Amino acid sequence: MAATGTEKQGDESVKAFYVSTPIYYVNDAPHLGHAYTTVAGDVLTRWHRQRGEKVWYLTGTDEHGQKIMRTAEANGVTPQEWCDKLVEEAWKPLWEHLDIGHDDFIRTTEKRHTDRVQEFVQDLYDKGEIYKGGYEGPYCVGCEEYKLPGDLIEDEQGVKLCPIHKKPVEILKEENYFFKLSAYGPKLLEFYEANPDFIQPESARNEVVNFVKQGLQDLSISRSTFDWGIPIPWDDKHVIYVWVDALLNYATAVGYGADQAKFEATFPANVHLVGKDILRFHAVIWPAMLMAQGLPVPGKVAANGWLMVGGEKMSKSNLTGIKPQDLTSHFGVDAYRWYFLRAIAFGSDGSFSWEDFTARYTSELANDYGNLASRVAAMVGKYFDGALPEATAAGDAEQAIQDGLAKAVAESDRKIGEELDFQGGILAVFDFVKQVNGYITEQEPWKVAKDDSPEGRARLATILYTAAESLRAVAVLLNPVMPETSRKLWESLGAEAGLGALADQPLADAARWGQLPVGATVTKGAVLFPRLEEPKKDA
Ligand code: MSP
């Protein structure tokens, strides 16, 4: 049996599979879009844990910069007070509510971060990678980014707008420090060429490659017109540009400059999950910063698409009032975790609708999956007093189920574990659930039950063992996506007594047939996916 992630977790001789989310701006409470990326990272890391790998999952908050400063001012509190309140009252509680199992939560106002950021920037300055210069250009505070004139759109009055926020840009003129980003274009192109999987999906990769091919400008890495940031160590009239500060979280959180053993056992990230709006920062600026410092660059930057509302990127201003909690209180946390990954191909944009969620919940979760679990438990209860019987009369139909399971395990592991195709991986498991439902419909155990000859009993036992053993594997495969549901199913199958904890079941072993011990106590546990109540009219 493969070693479990838990055993390897503290072992610094093993490099962790390190996944990060973007660190989110705390100018407001989290919304569906933030939760989308964070759930995806949680599923990915749970998947790798279930494989028996050592894993590190990092999330956190981006707390400096003009955007946060202005929000705090508008609310009559200091930026630090604003961040403290939102992190404690909104961000951390939501991740707990959604069962996000991050290993660390970094805040960019923490000393463990700010000290190391100063050291990193000082180092680059000492190496001659940073120089003083002037810059004037259109700046979007929403993006915290200077825009190229060609990137802007215009409204009907000819006012220049940020294409993402659709808000007017400000013309900033500053004397700043610059990082020699332009020097890294050729190295970056060489790197993309040698590592074709570095940027995912393909369309995102092409966009970045074309952008870099056009030639990079040097990057302004300081600001002197406001002070909510980390001071430039050699010139405290300037603060460090919020994006340079933020990107460094991926290093400072795992021991950069502080705990070398941990740093080497964790860094660089295997996967940076990002929204497609912040792809260039992660796929261009971040690797260039690391190259300049002689540090290893990440394995992959995976860009997810946007959750859309009314044809626009979902943001706090166009949420139409839907909070993650509004959905979880109606559909449950596990269904919420499942839905967005199931319904939207990762990398593409997608819209949310109550109708679509309701339809999929009812047909795929409640009817296909939930009913299968409750029918099987009920029949083992009714025909065998809740003690799992032995399969002594297996034939072709049972072999087909075993083959179907092997396919589901191999496919879901490749799709979720390797390709970040969450939708494809989930579908592979649900196809197997459908296959088991079909098997029961064909075998008609309720009819076989009427035959109490030894052959009839053996056949009935075989059908029910086959179905229960299939569910054992489904509980393991869906544990990363819907941990609470898998826990309930594990309990209902009486699996723990013979097989141990669900989290310790290696994925590589999931297709090995015959693991549920004969005699296991099967009980009709809680309904996995209760019937939905009528949604509120105003929702
Ligand atoms: N603070 C920066 C990131 C710094 S990382 C070193 C930032 N924060 S953000 O809060 O504005 O948004 C971050 C991420 O939230 C997006 O890139 C994306 O991953 C997620 N999303 C925010 N809105 C989203 C949608 N409407 N749809 C999908 N994801 C979205 O940018």
UniProtKB/TrEMBL annotation:
Keyword terms: Aminoacyl-tRNA synthetase, ATP-binding, Cytoplasm, Ligase, Metal-binding, Nucleotide-binding, Protein biosynthesis, Zinc
Please name the CDD domains in this protein's record. Anticodon_Ia_Met, MetRS_core
Is ATP-binding found in the keyword set? yes
Q: What is this protein called?
A: Methionine--tRNA ligase
Per UniProt, subcellular location reads as:
Cytoplasm
Q: How does it assemble?
A: Monomer.
- Which gene name does the record give? metG
Give the species this sequence originates from: Streptomyces thermolilacinus SPC6
Q: Which GO terms describe its biological process?
A: methionyl-tRNA aminoacylation
Give the family this protein belongs to, as stated in its UniProt record.
Answer: Belongs to the class-I aminoacyl-tRNA synthetase family. MetG type 2A subfamily.
| Cofactor binding, per record | Binds 1 zinc ion per subunit.
Q: Name one GO molecular function term.
A: ATP binding
Q: Which reaction does it catalyse?
A: tRNA(Met) + L-methionine + ATP = L-methionyl-tRNA(Met) + AMP + diphosphate
